[in-house]
Design a protein that fits this description.
610 residues; mainly beta; 5-stranded antiparallel β-sheet; 5-stranded mixed β-sheet; 28% strand
Length: 610
Amino acid sequence: MDKQSVKDFIHEHQLIFKSDDDEKPKLCKVCRLLIIAGTRFYSCSISSCTFFLHKHCADLPKVLIDPDYFSAKYNPFILSSTPTNEGDRCLKCYQICKNFTYCPKEIEHRNASLHPLCASPCKMETTHRSHRDHPLSPTHREIRAVCNACGEQENGIFFICQQCNYWLHQDCASLPPVAKHADHSHPLALFYSHPFPKGEISWGSCKICEEDLPLKLGVYTCQPCNYGAHIKCMKSSLKDLTPEEYKKLIAHLPPSVEDTVFPSLIIRAASLELEESNGANSTGDEKRMKPEECHDHPLTLLDDQNTEILGEDDLCNVCIQPILGSTPYYSCNQSHCHFLVHELCANLPTEIFGKLLDCRMYLFTEWPEFFGVFLCAFCRRSCNGFGYSDGPDGGGYNILDVECASAPRIIKHKSHKNHTLQLMMRSTYRRTEPGEFLCCSRTDFFFSRRFYQCINCDYKMHISCALLPQRVEHKFDTHPLQLHTDGPRNLSGRQNSSPENYYDFCEICEKCIDLRYWFYGCLECDNYFHVNCIPSVGEFSKFRFGGSVDDVPRHGDHPLTSVRMLTIGSQRCGYCGRIVRGFEDGFAFHCEMCDFWMHEYCVFWNRGYR
């Protein structure tokens, strides 16, 4: 008997057995059913060739002996790429056979056929993100059954879990994870069920039919806009993203392994390009700040051809991120003024719609508080650059810094390859459970309320962690430091890689660093750093230092200058006598002439600066 299987003769190119979590739907060439993300399958070795096979279908024999009593008389069956006669029905499921079919070898029985999925022995199981507890098996059903994704009664091909009585119609199993709809201007992400406990995040009502959105059914949502709709209401007019839209509407973070540009700059550039290509955005003609409105003095635009040498302390005065030589920027013409601003930051929109805040927000150039400091609602970091607030005339309750205001609605991140994450916000405040976020170990109430949530699984990521650059520079190492997001898997090359050795010490603060969370490091030099200990991304990375205050208590002779304590040892406050802690990311005030130090809060509370 011929022992050949399908994969030995079905395709002219070599087939590769692979398993990935690519969310893009693929169809098996033999059974014409969906190859679901997470299922092992065969793919053509030629990248441009869209040939795919289920593992089960690839292993089907070319010649089949079927043991069932009503089909045994037709043995042997030969697998053919088309049925012998058009309109032939399968002996078992009675459906019309199309494409690949098992046909009897004997000519007189050529009107009897078997669908590949009905051939015996045959048991195909697949995983699907709508039902992660158990594998699903395909089956054909003539009588209508309720689909657990859309709630509608359907017939035809279902993927079922008999243990849970879970039924997923093939049309719902193949829905695009991210799509667009005429009723909403932003891409919509598909959740097959509510990912959080009741009350934490509310879907509200369907924006199309205005009925409630049940927690157990699927929903297409733009959570930053509080928009959600039933699958059944979306299916008829749902449009998949084109490859061009996919690249523009879904941010892939970090942008490039070789790039030290901060992701928010690239995101803003892409957003500007998209708006220009569309002619207008969802809010109509967008008003933007002009470069001359950023600063009191004239500015000169310097592009990537300029020869000016910039240091790590050269920051954009708008977003408080490093100015890199490859990024066009404006520089003040006055020799005594060191004002710098990215070209993108000099053209920010004056109004935006606050993602997750459900309100319009307005650009401000200086916050009306002590030293211009405000607390960003997303990253919970202190910032004294430009920002957005919900108060049109200054002030307001919700405030975002420029970087967090650019946070995309939908992303893909290298730490969670191939899965899509959407910007989310809990309705309630609660402390994060240990291990709930794998990016960092922060567990405070406010910081973990807004985050990115995977639409396939329980993976979560803080907004500030998602916007970290892939590479940063630091004077402690001659090589660029790489962002490591895979925890212990990145350390397999270490001499002792047992779990108890996944701890090291930070080269800056010399405290223990838990390498199970994200960190920056140089594996070549065996140097590791807390994310918060890198000046350009740390706790006070959005704070512009160097400003001064006059007439402070107990030191009225000279002004005190704001200083970052990250790379400075501990000092003693000249006002309260307590220690100003060094080698931690905080700030204090210092007089170089007298070597007088003062806590930031001592200046603030005792002088009432506003």
